Amino acid sequence: MTIEATRARSKFRVERAVGRYFANPIVRGLGRIGIRTTFATDLETLGRKTGTIRRVPVSATFDENGAWLISQHGTRSGWAANITADPQVRIRQGGHWRTGTARLMPGDDVVARARTFASHPAFAGLTVATFRALQSDPISVRITFTHNDSDERRT
């Protein structure tokens, strides 16, 4: 294994642990009491092994036809692997759930995409730096909305 691959793997393990045991529980807890942040929203996938609904906080940027996400660790992240197995997802947009089909977009420019996540153009550099600090093998993910109904439930 190369030094770069070893660093990426180590970075992935640390970032995954921080997300799983610190950041994600805080974002989830705040969401449960009604406090939402513009930096994170909920993505719902079906577990590729269990078939159960999995919900994870993610950063997303929305347009009228769908949303863009960046999987910082490519298909090593659980939610990206779940999308590979079943691309039907739900994502929270504000206070409503939207249904869509997700696709990994390996040809997309992740750095340019990360700039679109900034709340203001002046913050684009900081946004890119933050994504870069947390990523090991990033890939853009496009969710195309399949329904206009914002409150449907997955069965």
From TrEMBL:
Gene3D superfamilies reported for this sequence:
Electron Transport, Fmn-binding Protein, Chain A
Q: Which domain of life is it from?
A: Bacteria
Which InterPro entries does the record match to this protein? F420H2_quin_Rdtase, Split_barrel_FMN-bd
* UniProt xrefs under Pfam families: F420H2_quin_red
**Single GO term (MF):** oxidoreductase activity
What is the name of this protein? Nitroreductase family deazaflavin-dependent oxidoreductase
